[in-house]
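Lab notebook page, bench 4
Experiment: in silico fold of construct C2
Operator: M.H.
Input chain length: 220 residues
Purpose: comparison with the prior construct
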Amino acid sequence: MILAAGRGDRLRPLTDTIPKPLIQVGPHALIEHHLLRLASAGLTDIVINLGWLGEQISDRLGDGSRYGVGIRYSQEPPGALETAGGIRHALAQLGDQPFLVVSADVVTDFPFDLLIDFEPVGLGHLVLVDNPPHHPEGDFGLERAQVNRNLPRYTFSGIGVFQAHWFQDLKPGPRPLRPLFERAIDQGQLTGQHYDGLWLDVGTPDRLTVARKHYANPGR
């Protein structure tokens, strides 16, 4: 599942007319980078949730065939469902097996093939990265593949593998993901791994500039 329903307020006025996943970074739009890398890894059954200006995303991507994938869309009702709410809303299309989730607004070279057929020991498995300058305190600790609340902390990359039944008992409606993570940590049900390769969060104009400079000067 590619999470693509956000409003992108911090990138306004650009996102007043273009949904954040369709912002151009290098040769492709943000979401197209993910589609191509997922296809290359052999992950070809894709669900994308749609919110703000979502029709532009479905019009641009179509059925996904030109990217080597098959795309189904989960249209969300007006108003933000947030991350966990969006996943809950898409469960009918995601099925009852573990699924990979990636946020549309990150740039990364994470090798998605590492997570093919990956089944979390507990409820979920997170990919964590070094803390970027805009998030110096991080999100979670990691010790022996177990996610915890200890120091030092890393930042959640927006990439993870989740058990479907984790979301099945949630009531429909807006719901953030962080509280689910924290409860799973307390239950010893959240594992993780650290990734030290390319990862950029494209959430503000300054960070968008950094991402575009990376593609303009990939060796630097």
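Observations: The two ends are 31 Å apart (CA to CA). The mean pLDDT is 94.
Next step: discuss at group meeting.
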